[in-house]
Design brief:
Elements lengths: L2 H30 L3 E2 L1 H5 L9 E7 L5 E2 L5 E7 L4 E7 L11 E9 L2 E9 L8 H9 L27 H5 L2
Parallel strand pairs: 1-2, 5-7
Antiparallel strand pairs: 2-4, 2-6, 3-4, 4-5, 6-7
């Protein structure tokens, strides 16, 4: 084999190796990607059948049911336009409650979302950006109250007064 053919074989081998490594990396990445959907998208049928995804929204007040003697929990997730019933078997996060934001990972089985994992918002002000955008798109506030457009004309919200602990501790 001439030096030119040897170089060409080496270059082709390197290109083939990089192509195979890239294909394997993309395949692994595709398997690990989990898409987020809100209840309106789920009820519209935009979810790929049989694939896992994240469902986000607010837990409907009064929808939480626990099966006696088991860890099975049923609740409804809403974006204030559509509702999706959720079934979960396991321990719920401490911050999980009705009327709060939630993101659940799982897949649809019939008309029910069967969750593998349930995540609750972590503090009073946090909401996953995709959930907040979905609620904003559907014209609802976080707590499910009236939208700001429905508030009294000219009314402005007033923030609660802040108390400085350093100045009040010595009083």
């Amino acid at each position: 084999m001439t030096p030119r053919r040897r170089r060409m074989a080496l270059v082709l081998g390197i290109v083939a190796g990089v192509a195979i490594a890239g294909a394997l990396a993309l395949s692994a990445f595709k398997k690990n990607v989990t898409f987020f959907f809100d209840p309106s998208q789920v009820t519209a049928g935009k979810v790929p059948p049989g694939e896992g995804f994240r469902l986000g929204g607010m837990v409907t007040k009064g929808s939480l049911r626990r099966d006696p003697g088991s860890l099975e929990v049923h609740f409804v997730v809403t974006d204030f336009q559509h509702d999706v019933p959720v079934s979960y078997s396991g321990m719920l996060p401490d911050l999980f409650r009705e009327g709060a934001g939630v993101v659940a990972h799982g897949k649809m089985e019939g008309a029910t979302f069967v969750a593998d994992e349930v995540l609750a918002k972590h503090d009073e002000n946090y909401m996953p950006p995709a959930v907040a955008e979905s609620l904003k798109r559907h014209g609802e506030s976080r707590e499910g109250l009236a939208t700001p457009a429905a508030a009294a004309p000219g009314a402005t919200p007033t923030p609660a007064p802040r108390v400085n602990a350093a100045t009040t501790a010595g009083s």
